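ok so heres the complex, two chains, lmk if somethin looks off
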Amino acid sequence: KQEVTQIPAALSVPEGENLVLNCSFTDSAIYNLQWFRQDPGKGLTSLLLIQSSQREQTSGRLNASLDKSSGRSTLYIAASQPGDSATYLCAGTNFGNEKLTFGTGTRLTIIP
Amino acid sequence: GAVVSQHPSRVICKSGTSVKIECRSLDFQATTMFWYRQFPKQSLMLMATSNEGSKATYEQGVEKDKFLINHASLTLSTLTVTSAHPEDSSFYICSARPHIYTEAFFGQGTRLTVV
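and the predicted structre for the whole thing:
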């Protein structure tokens, strides 16, 4: 059974810094991995999807990587801004299973 | 990107009544949709998989008679919380994908408060 963990649970950094959020999964049969952000009281916004055949994806100041052999994915945020403050969730899909397995989330606060 | 719309965003109901939440995929068809529940400061818990034209598949521990799911068309799934009680108060979110293994999109969520 796939288990996904995100450490740390909370992170505070000054505005302008680059930062990395971590996501670990137990089953290397993961097919793809998706990163989301969630603002308080809102639904999830998709940030990046990394397919099985890919190792990373980039969108603006965001870069996500996927290393299936080590069971890790990272989300890199460059030049952080207060608007980046949110909870970030990673979720994996295993081959043959449509369900998303969610990580526990990292609550990010960017300090102006 | 694709859009999934969920309605209502907030609802308050009296104990013992039923509440229906709608989830629509606006620009793609979805044979499968997913319903989640989220408790404060926790991650999402999958409740059930909604299958167009057939019965929903419920996760272990989720009461199918309490949480009725109907997926009558390729763009609409509904979750009805029947005989609601205060412990059903929560944040409910739906999700859909255009195709298996593609990007998943989520609705805005519904904050249900049972008084």
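quick notes: Chain B touches chain A through 24 residues (CB under 8 Å). thats all i got rn
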